[in-house]
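Working notes for the structural subgroup meeting. M.R. asked for a predicted model of this chain before we commit to crystallization trials. I am recording the input and output together here so anyone reviewing the notebook later can reproduce the run.

Input as submitted:
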Amino acid sequence: MVLQADRVSVEKGGRPLLQAVSLQLQPGELVGLIGPNGAGKSTLLRVLAGLQPPTSGHVTLHDKPLTRYSLRERSRCIAWLEQGGSIHWPIPVARLVALGRQPHLPGWQKPALPDQAAIEAALHATDTWSLRHRDATSLSGGERSRVLMARALAANPDILLADEPVAALDPGHQLQTMDLLRHFARNERGCIVVLHELSLAARYCDRLYLLHRGQLAASGTVAEVLSQHNLQQVYGIECHIGCDGVPWIIPLRRL
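Returned structure, recorded in token form:
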């Protein structure tokens, strides 16, 4: 087991955001978190990253409680890609991506040759090499999303937690990003991704967790989770579901 949440609950202002949600990430898996707006997906991802303490329940990383890892140790193992991430400093894109290597550097030591190789590989993988000299604050929304993905990949983590990484991207870069996540999640590494695009979830993910109102509505294979019944009960929609080489889902109407 790479990462596991056991009956995690989160409350804020007396209101439950998550209620006894359990999740497992195995080595080599790309796991999708899906559900309507406000279902608790981002909250769960923050708990898994160690950024949000649960009200009850616990998270383990490599069979060890997440709370027993130092911040540096956790940062080496888990890369966090937040939803709609912002860039606050007018620095070159290459320097921003290089920040992904900080957990591996003693103090503020400059990146060595292996670090530079990881940075360049991440820039090429995300199609941002041509942006490396640009002021990071001048990027468009889609460019910014890809650059922040490059920063996460430069860390070479065991686990990548990505919150809606394709939301601001055109269709070509959506597919490129999902291909990247699929390639990342192999051997001993794993990835959990929050998605609203159900066809991408169906095409790329090994397993899915469907959240609704802070609770786990369904989990399992794509076929088990993305059923007409679940889509009607959770999303309130009727869909056309098919497979022509790859699975696809077309929402037809609200119920």
